[in-house]
Write a structure and sequence with these properties.
By secondary structure, this protein is mainly alpha-helical. It folds into 2 domains: about 50 residues, Homeodomain-like (Arc Repressor Mutant, subunit A), CATH 1.10.10.60; about 120 residues. The longest helix is centred in the C-terminal third of the chain and has 23 residues.
């Protein structure tokens, strides 16, 4: 069973995403709109989040954590080409949301996740710089793959990347 605060956060995140999917711009969505859509009070919102961006960060963090648990993928232990297949398959499964985020100029939240999940693992400054480079490159590849219609399969994308970049 999900703890109450996680349930509330998930409902608020789902409500915000639903409003965005309806075509609302995040800046025009009020806190009141979010809590009414979710069926919670403003107090519930402020107990869990300071700003709407925090909701998006929570959502992407939960999607990323779900991916890690589901695939049991470890950047350091999984063979690089296999790791990339998992990553691109995950990204592909969320392409509709990503396209919506691109349309609403909110795609930078995805970039935050790329940075957070990869860069925080660095043990040295040299490793950190390699991960920054890799996270930025992977994010850019993902962005351009999306805006070009994601025509290649996740396996094809993983093959393309692993053929010209070695594991950072």
């Amino acid at each position: 069973m999900m703890p109450r605060s996680n349930f509330t956060k998930k409902c608020l995140a789902d409500a915000l995403l639903k409003l965005i999917k309806k075509g609302a711009d995040i800046d025009s969505i009020s806190i009141q709109d979010i809590v009414e859509e979710a069926g919670f009070s403003r107090m519930a919102y402020y107990r869990n989040f300071k700003e709407k961006g925090d909701i998006m960060r929570y959502y992407f963090d939960s999607v990323t954590e779900e991916f890690i648990k589901r695939t049991n993928t470890n950047f350091f232990e999984t063979p690089f080409d296999k790791y990339l297949v998992y990553v691109f398959a995950h990204l592909f499964s969320h392409r509709d949301l990503a396209a919506l985020l691109i349309k609403t100029n909110m795609f930078d939240y995805v970039k935050e996740q790329f940075d957070l999940k990869l860069i925080k693992e660095a043990r040295t400054n040299e490793e950190k710089q390699r991960y920054i480079f890799f996270a930025g490159g992977l994010f850019n590849v993902y962005y351009h793959w999306l805006i070009n219609g994601a025509k290649e399969t996740p396996e094809e994308m993983a093959s393309i990347i692993s053929n010209y970049i070695s594991k950072p």
